């Protein structure tokens, strides 16, 4: 438990304990003291009639204790709630920093719903544990301890009878608690799956509706939500078994106390005031212990959430270098024996080596699954691929500081990524200090200046999520303009023209040529006619380079490139014929 706390809030929980413990001790003591005053009141009451003035000090003492306890309880509440909120803020910041230190490739592989469940739901559970459970539980436990010690000094036999139910209930609760722990894991897993399924459905809803599949695909969401409901009900039942058993056995202590108390009272061993006080204390103890166990049952889910947070914090981060890039122009890139597989699976790249001359445009072609995108992502350090190496101007890519490296690499993805905000703000992601003139120059080179001016507010037009107002070609040209604005020594282009019409394809080819004037460019291409002017073409198959050279050279020799080219040419020739027949 303490190891888990050290992971969640290193050192802070010890400071919190030192700060809170005096207040919690005082709260527990003030909760127990009124029972001592009650004993004095009963003794005075049974002693016979007395003047009102003799009762006033005891009544005033009780009122004073209650007021003091109320004020202390308020302080405890403020401390625990404040610390809980502080804990949640710190955890989310630490988790965000941890995620930023992950390899980008791992982020692409992980379920967004699962990560958001940890960042939101699990952190909320941890905050609730400290804000709403920790203070009352510790305070009640201390009060029970004070009362048991105080009553033991009065009569050990009655104290033992009063605690008999506790001795019976604790083993039963500990035994049945394991079922609740296992069910808490299943419930949290079901919650994460339901969140992931709902998020996936909402993100793809436009596509699903366009294909008339919105209802059919909702079945997965429905299944996940039904499982969440089942696991939630099962958690309520299994988590309640332990506390209910404990409370039932605990209540046996009261009739036992009454029997032992009457026997000792009749024998003259104890007086009636003490017996009545024991009965009152017993009922108070039972109520407090019952609430404590119910609170602990709630904490099982919170404990599991804390472990999920700790597991995320324990995930290894990407090793960072210390060297600062000092590149003044395009890079010379060397690949040495690169081999890579995802999560220990079959190798996607195998013993791949090659050179990308500075200022060149290298095209990667090949069938799907041949490793083209994987190679591009290794150049961006989305993953590392030991024992192979990537050398940038002769220096191992892992030697560079990761943040500085990423600032000097521009990536144009197959699916354009735009954020909610203005057109200018999206462009300035590459260069926050860029002037308006620089924005416009980059957009002219990327053939998107004219359509931006046609927007309602030009460069200050607000775009919705993923730039839904723009066509695919327009979004792609904006992303190329962003890469131009960055003036990165290395540019990675992943299938930028794979799904565009001929007009947009021609415009983007023009933009890519502008990009290649200032950078070393690695371009993944699906349409081979877009790479005929490349300085070199690498043909990949099953993670290996099976051919390399310029377009004319590769076209003149039998091999995979010639086969792919002929297949694509046949497809281009076939389309007009089909249109003519129609």
From TrEMBL:
GO cellular component, as recorded: plasma membrane
Keywords for the protein's UniProt record, in alphabetical order: ATP-binding, Cell membrane, Lipid transport, Membrane, Nucleotide-binding, Translocase, Transmembrane, Transmembrane helix, Transport
SMART domains on file: AAA
Location in or out of the cell: Cell membrane
Residue ranges annotated for the ABC transporter domain, each copy included: 333-567
Membrane-topology descriptor: Multi-pass membrane protein
Pfam families with a match to the protein in the record: ABC_membrane, ABC_tran
Keyword Nucleotide-binding: yes
Main location: membrane
One MF term in the entry's GO annotations: ATP binding
Domain of life: Bacteria
Transmembrane segments: 21-42, 54-72, 133-151, 157-176, 235-257, 263-282
ABC transmembrane type-1 domain mapped to chain residues: 24-293
UniProt xrefs under InterPro entries: AAA+_ATPase, ABC1_TM_dom, ABC1_TM_sf, ABC_transporter-like_ATP-bd, ABC_transporter-like_CS, P-loop_NTPase, Type_1_exporter
PANTHER family in the record: ABC TRANSPORTER, ATP-BINDING TRANSMEMBRANE PROTEIN, ATP-BINDING CASSETTE SUB-FAMILY B
Protein's recorded name: ATP-binding cassette subfamily B protein
Species this chain originates from: Roseateles oligotrophus
């Amino acid at each position: 438990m303490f190891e888990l706390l050290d992971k969640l809030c290193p050192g802070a929980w010890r400071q919190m304990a030192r700060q809170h413990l005096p207040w919690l001790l005082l709260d527990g003591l003030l909760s127990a003291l009124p029972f001592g005053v009650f004993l004095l009141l009963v003794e005075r009451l049974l002693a016979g009639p007395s003047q009102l003035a003799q009762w006033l000090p005891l009544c005033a003492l009780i009122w004073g204790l209650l007021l003091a306890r109320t004020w202390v309880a308020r302080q405890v509440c403020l401390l625990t709630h404040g610390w809980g909120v502080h804990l949640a803020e710190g955890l989310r910041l630490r988790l965000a920093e941890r995620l930023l230190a992950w390899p980008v490739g791992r982020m692409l592989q992980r379920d967004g719903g699962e990560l958001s469940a940890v960042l939101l739901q699990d952190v909320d559970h941890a905050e609730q544990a400290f804000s709403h459970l920790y203070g009352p539980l510790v305070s009640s436990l201390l009060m029970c301890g004070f009362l048991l010690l105080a009553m033991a000094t009065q009569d050990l036999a009655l104290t033992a009878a009063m605690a008999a139910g506790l001795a019976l209930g604790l083993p039963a609760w500990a035994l049945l608690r394991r079922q609740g722990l296992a069910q808490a894991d299943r419930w949290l897993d079901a919650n994460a799956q339901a969140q992931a399924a709902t998020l996936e459905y909402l993100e793809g809803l436009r596509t699903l509706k366009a294909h008339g599949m919105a209802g059919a695909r909702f079945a997965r969401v429905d299944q996940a939500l039904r499982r969440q409901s089942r696991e939630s009900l099962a958690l309520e039942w299994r988590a309640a078994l332990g506390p209910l058993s404990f409370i039932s056995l605990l209540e046996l202590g009261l009739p036992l106390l009454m029997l032992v108390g009457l026997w000792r009272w009749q024998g003259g061993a104890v007086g009636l005031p003490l017996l009545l006080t024991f009965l009152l204390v017993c009922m108070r103890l039972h109520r407090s212990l019952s609430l404590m166990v119910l609170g602990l049952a709630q904490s099982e889910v919170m404990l599991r959430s804390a472990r999920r947070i700790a597991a995320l914090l324990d995930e290894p981060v990407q090793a960072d270098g210390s060297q600062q890039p000092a590149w003044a122009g395009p890079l010379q890139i060397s690949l040495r024996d690169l081999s890579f597989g995802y999560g220990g699976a079959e190798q996607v790249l195998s013993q791949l080596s090659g050179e990308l001359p500075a200022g060149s445009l290298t095209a990667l072609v090949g069938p799907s699954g041949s490793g083209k995108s994987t190679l591009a992502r290794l150049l961006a350090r989305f993953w590392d691929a030991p024992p192979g190496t990537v050398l940038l101007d002769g220096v191992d890519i892992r030697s560079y500081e990761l943040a500085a490296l990423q600032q000097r690499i521009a990536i144009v993805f197959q699916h354009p990524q735009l954020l909610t905000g203005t057109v200018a703000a999206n462009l300035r992601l590459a260069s926050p200090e860029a002037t308006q003139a620089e924005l416009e120059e980059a957009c002219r080179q990327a053939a998107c200046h004219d359509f931006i001016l046609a927007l309602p507010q030009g460069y200050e037009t607000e775009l919705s999520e993923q730039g839904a107002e723009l066509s695919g070609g327009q979004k792609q040209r904006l992303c190329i303009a962003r890469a131009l604005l960055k003036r990165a020594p290395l540019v990675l282009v992943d299938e930028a023209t794979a799904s565009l019409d001929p007009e947009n394809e021609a415009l983007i080819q023009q933009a890519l040529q502008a990009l290649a004037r200032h950078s070393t460019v690695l371009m993944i291409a699906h349409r081979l006619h877009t790479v005929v002017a490349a300085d070199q073409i690498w043909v990949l198959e099953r993670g290996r380079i099976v051919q390399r050279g310029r377009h004319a050279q590769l076209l003149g020799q039998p091999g995979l490139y010639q086969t792919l080219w002929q297949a694509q040419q046949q497809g281009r020739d076939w389309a007009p014929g089909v249109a003519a027949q129609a």
